[in-house]
Amino acid sequence: MTTKPIHSPLPSLIVAVALALSQVGLAQNQLLEVLKDENARGAKFWIYNNLATARAEARRTDKPMFVTFRCVPCAACNGFDAEVAKNNQRIIRLAQEKFVAVRQVEMKGVDLSQFQFDYDLNWAAMFLNADGTVYARYGTQSAEGPDAYNTIESLEKTMRRVLALHDGYPANKAALAGKLGKPKPYKTALEMPGMKHRTKLAGGTARNNCVHCHNIHDAEHEQRRATGHNNHDALWRYPLPDNLGLRIDPGDGRVISAVQAGSPAANADLRPSDVLTHADGQALTSIADLQWVLHNLPNTKSNVTLNVARSDRSIEKKLAMNAGWKKTDISWRGSLWSIKPVLATWCAPMKEKRVKLLRLAKGVKPLEVRWINTSRPEGRNAKRAGLRKGDIIIELEGQPLQMSSQHFNMHLKLNYRVGDKLPLTLLRDGKRIRFDWPLTDRD
């Protein structure tokens, strides 16, 4: 009797999987080249822009996911990003051995219900279990600068705290429940009602055709405007611990370095060297974790409960905040520029030598109109009203201008609406000119 050979499907399956993985790798390399992502070049252990593959690998290995979000074209945070991506051996060893490391460089297909963080950041990270449980957030920015709070030391500490949370999971699930945001009515950025240029953005990703993180906030602004729900409270996103009167050591992320007198933190008897461990029951690993808790509180009279380790004791403190406690300096936020009214001009600070030649009063910070965008109605209307390239803004609302271009923009967004006029004094050819800038959005 002749026995027929049994043909197992396993070899063909292995070939198919290998082919699929090679195609994914090819696509990832192509994206890296298109974006000119130099910090990722040669860093082979990162899963590049593929969250589905990362989640599958996290399930297989029972490792937590370490997902970094990086806007490649942005110069801000480039040094910190390079350290994390390929230079710092402590971070690389941890990421490679203990995590499934993902480098996400666009927001096009990201699940916005799962990945909720401060989208105005130039560099951010989230840590997750393969089942979608969020362990931690990392990444903090302010008017002090994009790197004022991000340090390799505190990132490493956050990563080790995440590993402890992962080891304790699921017994610690209660302390992690609030870290996942409420579901969004849309899945991805391209499904957002307020997302502009969706057809173009749906095409191939390039440096000039990419869904940036801040575009998510831009789309939220546009949707609120379109539905008549404009509200400044929505602008006070992810408030810093400073709004509670707390200064956190950026080298640690949880240690209190200073407490402001008369603040909610001082009134609750929080002290320097106290270590924050929980906020409203959520385990803290970083400043961003505390910001997440504060972000989800209202801007009305509110309370937050903080647990701290003091010496060998665990202490619970309840902080009471007054209405408006979230309001802060948001001049640094990229998404602020998309809020109407829009000037559609580039008003830039002048070099000190040129300012001295103007012989202005002490403290004046003039802004020069360097460019008027006549492809937009806002720019065309400003030009029709008499604005000229080279005009120098020296007064706002009858007072000497004493703010940066970012703060000038913030003042406009918070205090004016479309249809108003912005009262300015300009300097043109040595002469002072009164100019009421028409704040329009159509011809």
How would you describe this structure to a colleague?
With 443 residues, this protein is α+β, with helices and mostly antiparallel strands. It has 3 domains: 23-179, Glutaredoxin; 241-321, Pdz3 Domain (Roll), CATH 2.30.42; 340-438, PDZ domain (Pdz3 Domain, Roll). The chain is built from 12 helices and 17 strands. The chain has helices spanning 10-35, 51-61, 78-87, 89-98, 152-167, 198-201, 213-226, 264-267, 287-295, 352-358, 377-384, 405-415, and strands at residues 47-48, 65-70, 100-104, 123-128, 134-138, 246-248, 256-259, 275-279, 282-283, 302-310, 313-321, 345-349, 367-372, 392-396, 399-400, 421-428, 431-438. A hairpin with a 2-residue loop joins β8 and β9.
Please tag this protein with its features.
single chain; 443 residues; alpha+beta; Glutaredoxin; Pdz3 Domain; 3 domains; six-stranded antiparallel beta sheet; five-stranded mixed beta sheet; 29% helix; globular; disordered N terminus
CATH topology of the largest domain: Glutaredoxin
Helix content: 25-40%
The total tally of domains equals 3
| SS element count, helices | 12
Question: Into which percentage range does the β-strand content fall?
Answer: 15-25%
* CATH class (first level) name of the largest domain: Alpha Beta
- Describe the global form: globular
CATH architecture of the largest domain: 3-Layer(aba) Sandwich
Summarize the biggest pleated sheet: 6 strands, antiparallel
Q: Unreliable segments (pLDDT under 50, ≥5 consecutive)?
A: 1-8, 13-26
Radius of gyration: 25 Å
Average pLDDT figure: 92
Cα end-to-end separation? 90 Å
- CATH homologous superfamily title of the largest domain: Glutaredoxin
One letter per element, helices H and strands E, the order comes to: HEHEHHEEEHHHEEHEEHEEEHEHEEHEE
